Fold this protein.
Amino acid sequence: MPRHFLELADHPASTLWSLVALAREIKKNPSAYRTLEGQTLALIFEKPSTRTRVSFEVGMRELGGEVVTLTGAEMQLGRGETLADTARVMSRYVHALMVRTNDPTKLDQMAGAATIPVINGLTDRSHPCQVMADVLTVVERKGDISSQKIVWLGDGDNNILYSWVHAAVAFGPALTIACPPQFMPKKDLLAWSRQMGGKITVTDDAAAATKDADVVITDTWVSMHQTDSPQRYETLMPYQVNRALMAHAKSDAMFMHCLPAHRGEEVTDDVMDSAQSAVWDEAENRKHAQKAVLLWCLGKTEF
Ligand code: CP
Ligand code: NVA
């Protein structure tokens, strides 16, 4: 069975910790990891992307490999070729496949048929590669993650948050989610995290949630698969990350956002551009974290 990277919860915490450690080593000494010469990664995008596309393309090349980038619309997928057949064919040409799509079951179908590793490059449900970069960013800045208080503000039914809940279970920080009752995290996700011993709290009180936070995170209020409406913005406005809200966090709290940010909506300029903001390191860390994932998927690690 190929080493897929579909959800963080599929992997033991020890593997995820090893990936973070490897990503730090790769970041320090990139030229020591050119071990994918002769290998090709295909990237399939059924939604737009800036960071995921560029960080995977550049990362794979830095590892010595090649890349092919495709959009679903330009492939026969767009004319009805099945996902499973596409995965079977891609498996004969390339060594790994990253897919960004809407429905997570599409990714499962591809992974089920592929004989090469399949990597989740975001679905409506989750974004594990992003959260590996996020964890790396927290560890770099704070020296540790398990003792931190991490606060998520805004849409509780969000794909980044979904992977953060998985990460909170694996890496052990306390995760407080502040969201309006209309936009709560999925019940089965919360039930799973509690059963797994995750330190997860959900509240609708943004200020109380942010008290003594070490890390404050938000994301767009309208993800690519969601529909905006004036009511949605009005409901989410109390969860905007602005200076007044950041004042409740610890004075050395860091701010994170997967980007793209909608300045003036979920976050204000004075937080995005402040010394507390880690967003550019976080974006850079996509490349380092994904290089570690690629090496693991392609059997180039000792774990
Ligand atoms: N954070 C992230 O995945 O960005 P892109 O949509 O630009 O890839
Ligand atoms: N939640 C966002 C993340 C973008 C990287 C979306 O799905 O659009």
Q: What stands out?
A: Residues 122, 158-160, 219-220, 223-224, 258 surround norvaline (ligand 2) (CB under 6 Å). The longest strand covers residues 40-45.
